[in-house]
From TrEMBL:
Keywords: Glycoprotein, Glycosidase, Hydrolase, Signal. GO terms for biological process: carbohydrate metabolic process. Residues 210-399 form the Beta-galactosidase domain. It catalyses: Hydrolysis of terminal non-reducing beta-D-galactose residues in beta-D-galactosides. This is beta-galactosidase. It comes from Marasmius oreades. SUPFAM superfamilies: (Trans)glycosidases, Beta-galactosidase LacA, domain 3, Galactose-binding domain-like, Glycosyl hydrolase domain. PANTHER family: BETA-GALACTOSIDASE RELATED. It is an enzyme of class 3 (hydrolase). It holds the Pfam family Glyco_hydro_35. Its EC number is 3.2.1.23. Belongs to the glycosyl hydrolase 35 family. One of its GO terms (molecular function) is beta-galactosidase activity.
Length: 875
């Protein structure tokens, strides 16, 4: 493999060089074997600045390290950490001959099981657009040239979770939310990404100096306040293009800074000049960063400077285009040559003024000032040679610049590799594709109609609330379409800088989300079928076909705490995912009064214990602090009077939840977690004659549902039978609404199944979620922890395990379920396994299907693959 969009291969992630270098070297030998056909640099992600694999055994071609500088306190998103200021120095010290690479930079924050854990809205705020503005541009100031955000999209940990430190949602507060919606974080990333794509001179820069150095100490002149501003200068050594990255000295500050900046420019004969020249000042809001450019290339033209931000710079149809933007409550200024005969001669607002200046050594230059109060998009200058636009930040955020790709080029959508051709489209929630064929511009994308018509954006709505698009395209374009519907404009792009195109009424929904919400079935009114899913505690239960748990050795590094030499770790017997049921047999001799069990299930686990058919207690792996959820408990279970069968075989049944395994980090083999029973002892004495264990049917290798994969099922009885799969016949089951909970308020496990139909029209992207509304107290903190409901649930949608609910921990109560898992035009099966962990407590799950957004456009023809029940391989 040589060429194309794949530029490197990461050998492994966060793996320690000592003592793991030999393993790394073995992997590299495989990648570098000539038979693989790979000709790519090998990379590595160091968990912090640990200097691993830069030199020595296993050294990679390109070293990188990860960073989570604002950490994880999503309960207090307004409390920031300062931006790190040592990345550039570290890079010069350890691998200056390579580009500075950060393969995993904070794009959100993970959260553990509760209690008192905030949901991911706090993480979104902690790492929101202000964080992106300051911390991302500090990376640019450090001269980072290869960067990956983790995560851009977190998504859902469907199935049983492989890592115990997080819950089902892997949203993280990422730029793209779990149900795939786009918000202000994505918009800020888009603005940054378009600037970087538009600025090839930024790809090669030297760090010239920053405000800690004498060369730049005098470059900041305050306006009306003490000096709050910090600046770093990067310059392209070949073209002299300058990138002045400014932020608050105290990056956590919310104060406003107003200043002027002394810069040098090759276009001005390298003489110093203070900018802005006419506008009162450059303004930085608290927790804001900007890039001020000098000698900046757009197309074949150069701007002397701009204190306004750059959205797009490049060429469209042979015309140099510069699209600037800025906060409407701030002043901005740019200086550039506006040669050419303008086709637009009247500015659309008096808040934009153009004055001539002799700043340039090569002739007259135009200084453009943008006063406070500018909203919407404005054409500053339009000629056949160049186009200059300005918009407020909110309007700029609605613009997209899709690649115009050659359909015959497999790399056609990769900028600079397959194409450099684009158009600008403002207004829609999302532009998916753009294509130009014989004067027709074909656009596909989405409009957000969730809250229509209230969610108006400047420049995004025409007369009488009609949706519009703003398009900048080649003059050869004479017509356009949106999702196959013709747009309502005529003419070309010769006379006007851009065209306003209205969507035809028959091509756009006139309603809003209400009509879709009203059509969603009310699951509380559905018919639910119920069956007991813990028959293993019955007196007559036969476990003779189960696996005998008689191992006396293990590959797990963590030893048994106590017992008789037998190892009771689920993974050793092939049961590593989800619930596992253990049954320990002993003959009653008259002395057994209790049993000690040490149970390990990972953070936030639980295990319920029965003696014969009598419930003893549940052991909970949690505390009052989400940062201190425990992996393991050691507990005494006392036998009630008359629960033992005198002189006969008695059975201790343990239903245990496996929350997932540990991660390795620098230490090897931590993932070999001792999930299971780490200690067992009858008190004051006694011996277990036999232990048997059952988890997921088929274990590691022989599980029957290969389509949904190894993580989809656990060891609850109903899972082993396949009750969660579509088309399983529940007609003989009793009818019982899930809100009624388990019969007789008993501790145990029940299986609830219902079916419902959806009839969502095509051409819409409508995220939906399953909500457990009886647990809304995790959202509003309306009750104390003593009132949290002691139950767990897992649920399956059309056979896919889509969520784990913990009623006494939380925090997750809303579970997005994507189209394709849900059949939007057909029948659906919802199965919920309810585990009541304490008797005589009312458990009343309130399960609802909710609409989380309505977007017109969407991805058409979502493939569904939800195989139904089969007896093959089932118990």
């Amino acid at each position: 493999m040589n060429g194309g969009p794949i530029i490197a291969i990461q050998v492994d992630n966060e793996y320690g060089q000592d003592p793991g270098a030999g393993y790394f070297e073995d992997l590299e030998a495989i990648y570098r074997n000539k038979d693989t056909g790979l000709d790519l640099p090998l990379t590595y992600n160091d968990p912090g600045m640990g200097r691993s694999f830069i030199n020595g055994t296993g050294a990679v071609d390109l070293y990188g390290f990860d960073a989570y500088p604002n950490r994880y306190d999503c309960a207090h998103p307004d409390i920031w950490k300062p931006v790190p200021e040592n990345y550039h120095e570290y890079h010069l010290e350890v691998n200056s001959w390579q580009p500075l690479y950060i393969p995993e930079y904070q794009g959100g924050s993970p959260q553990a099981w509760g209690p008192n854990t905030p949901d991911y809205t706090g993480c979104y705020a902690l790492t929101g657009p202000a964080f992106e503005s300051v911390f991302h541009r500090q990376l640019w100031a450090d001269n980072v040239k290869l960067l990956n955000y983790y995560p851009l999209y977190g998504g859902t940990s469907w199935g049983n979770i492989p890592y115990h430190g997080v819950y089902t949602s892997y949203d993280w507060g990422a730029a793209i939310s779990e149900p795939r919606t786009l918000g202000t974080k994505y918009t800020e990333l888009k603005l940054q990404g378009l600037f970087l794509r538009s600025s090839p001179e930024f790809y090669k820069t030297d760090v010239v100096a920053n405000s800690t150095e004498p060369d730049l100490l005098g470059s900041i002149s305050t306006v009306g306040n003490t000096s709050l501003t910090f600046v770093t200068l990067l310059r392209n050594p070949d073209t002299e293009a300058g990138f002045w990255i400014v932020r608050q000295k105290d990056s956590t500050s919310t104060a406003v800074s107003r200043f002027k900046l002394t810069v040098t420019s090759s276009l001005s004969g390298d003489r110093k000049m203070q900018i802005p020249q006419i506008a009162p000042a450059i303004t930085l809001n608290g927790r804001e960063s900007k890039v001020i450019v000098t000698d900046y290339l757009f197309g074949t033209s150069r701007a002397l400077y701009s204190t306004a931000s750059v959205l797009f710079a490049g060429t469209i149809d042979g015309r140099d285009v510069l699209f600037l933007y800025g906060d409407s409550e701030q002043e901005h200024e740019a200086a550039l040559n506006l040669n050419g005969s303008p086709t637009v001669t009247n500015l659309t607002t008096p808040l934009i003024k153009i004055q001539q200046s002799s700043l340039s050594s090569s002739g007259s230059i135009s200084i453009i000032t943008f006063a406070k109060g500018i909203k919407g998009l404005h054409t500053v200058h339009s000629s056949r040679e160049r186009l200059v636009l300005f918009a407020d930040t909110k309007t700029a955020g609605t613009f997209w610049s899709p690649a115009i790709a050659d359909p015959n080029d497999p790399h056609g959508n990769f900028w600079s590799i397959g194409t450099n051709e684009t158009v600008l489209v403002g207004g829609p929630y999302l532009v998916r594709t753009a294509k130009i064929t014989k004067g027709l511009l074909e656009l596909t994308g989405d409009f957000d109609v969730t809250h229509r018509p209230s969610a108006s954006v400047e420049g995004n709505r025409g007369p009488e609330g009609r949706k519009t698009l703003t398009i900048i395209a080649p003059q050869s374009v004479t017509k356009a379409s949106w999702n196959g519907k013709p747009l309502d404009f005529e003419g070309s792009f010769v006379e006007s800088a851009c065209r306003i195109a209205g969507l035809p009424e028959d091509g756009f929904a006139t309603g809003n989300a209400t009509s879709f919400i009203e059509g969603i079935p009310d699951l509380s009114a559905n018919e639910w079928k119920y069956a007991d899913s813990l028959p293993e505690i019955r007196e007559d239960w036969d476990d003779s076909q189960w696996v005998v748990a008689n191992h006396t050795s293990t590959n797990v590094l963590f030893p048994m705490w106590y017992g008789d030499g037998r190892v009771l770790y689920g993974c050793d017997y092939g049961f590593c995912e989800g619930a596992v049921v253990w049954r320990g047999h002993f003959n009653e001799t008259g002395v057994e009064k209790s049993v000690n069990l040490s149970i390990n299930g990972g953070q936030g686990f639980a295990a319920s214990v029965w003696l014969n058919s009598v419930f003893l207690n549940t052991s909970f792996g949690n505390s009052s602090n989400s940062a201190n959820n425990v992996n393991e408990t050691d507990q005494l279970f006392v036998f009630p009077e008359d629960a033992l069968k005198k002189g006969q075989d008695n059975v201790i049944t343990v239903l245990q939840d496996n929350m997932g395994l540990n991660e390795n980090w620098y230490t090897q083999d931590q993932m070999k977690s001792p999930r299971g029973i780490r200690g067992f002892q009858l008190n004051p004495s006694g011996n277990f004659s036999e232990w048997r264990v059952q988890g997921k049917v088929g274990g590691y290798k022989n599980f029957p549902d290969k389509h949904r994969g190894v993580m989809n099922e656990g060891g609850f009885f109903g899972e082993r039978k396949g009750w969660h799969l579509p088309n399983f016949d529940t007609s003989s089951w009793r009818t019982r609404n899930i809100s009624s909970g388990l019969p007789d308020l008993k501790a145990g496990v029940g299986f609830f199944v219902t079916t419902f139909d959806l009839d969502i029209p095509t051409g819409f992207d409508i995220p939906m979620s399953i909500n457990f509304e009886d647990l809304d107290y995790f959202q509003n903190r309306s009750v104390g922890t003593e009132e949290y409901k002691p139950y767990r649930a897992i649920f399956f949608v059309n056979g896919w395990m889509m969520g784990k609910v913990i009623g006494n921990l939380g925090p997750q109560v809303r579970f997005p379920v994507h189209e394709g898992i849900l059949d939007y035009q057909g029948a659906n099966t919802l199965a919920v396994v309810v585990w009541a962990m304490t008797p005589n407590v009312t458990i009343s799950p309130q399960v609802r299907l909710r609409v989380d957004g309505v977007f017109q456009g969407g991805i058409l023809n979502i493939r569904k693959s939800n195989p139904g029940w089969s007896a093959e391989g089932r118990e």
